[in-house]
Amino acid sequence: MTFPHSTLSRRAKTLEVPRPQPRRNGEAMHLLVDSTGLRLCGAGEWLLEKHGAKTRRSWRKLHIGLDAGSGQIVAASLTAKEADDGAEVGSLLDRITGAVASFTGDGGYDQDRVYASVAERSPEAAVIVPPRATAVPSDTAETAPKQRDRHLQHIAEHGRMAWQRASGYTPRARAEAAIGQFKEVVGDGLRSRTDERRATEVDLAVHVLNRMLELGRPNYARTA
User: Fold this and answer.
1) Which of 62, 72, 121, 215 has the fewest CB neighbours in a 10 Å radius?
2) Which residues fall within 8 angstroms of residue 25, CB to CB, at 6 or more apart?
3) pLDDT exceeds cutoff 90 at 126
4) Ranges of each domain in the chain
């Protein structure tokens, strides 16, 4: 069955894509975050491929939140390419249904507002983000150390590699793998012409990837 492209394009503006469901057991999830760039496909890309013409490529930044337990992408958003990763944390967290036990991201998320956004929504959640090399303890590190102060202390005493193992940082690589899967299966470009429709395009892609993961997961049943 085929549909005119214009019809699909109009539908993308109002299409509601199912969101990932919260965990059935009610447990809080361990959230892994990362971001990547997606190019905007259009007439300029067609000219580049056909005639070798030079054109200024435009991009959007894709931010994802991955449930470390299920492997599913539970939150995704698009921003301008200049957007700071830390500025989008609140938006990602608002898209998640259910509690968060920990938030893990790379050094780009080492920001006070990231800690604040997580604490505002999940006060008991651990923030597992490597402090920058130039990071210094807070003014209350001696009397009332914050999470970041404890990270800095552990790194100072045992080194960064030991901190990664002790803090639970290493699973963050799964978020990178999820982005790699997104680009391999879906592609590294957005074909819609407006940001509203591009957001729907991303939501559809995430839904498809999650469904593929669900169908590929084996089910176990005890036999007599």
Assistant:
1) 215
2) none
3) yes
4) 28-133+143-216
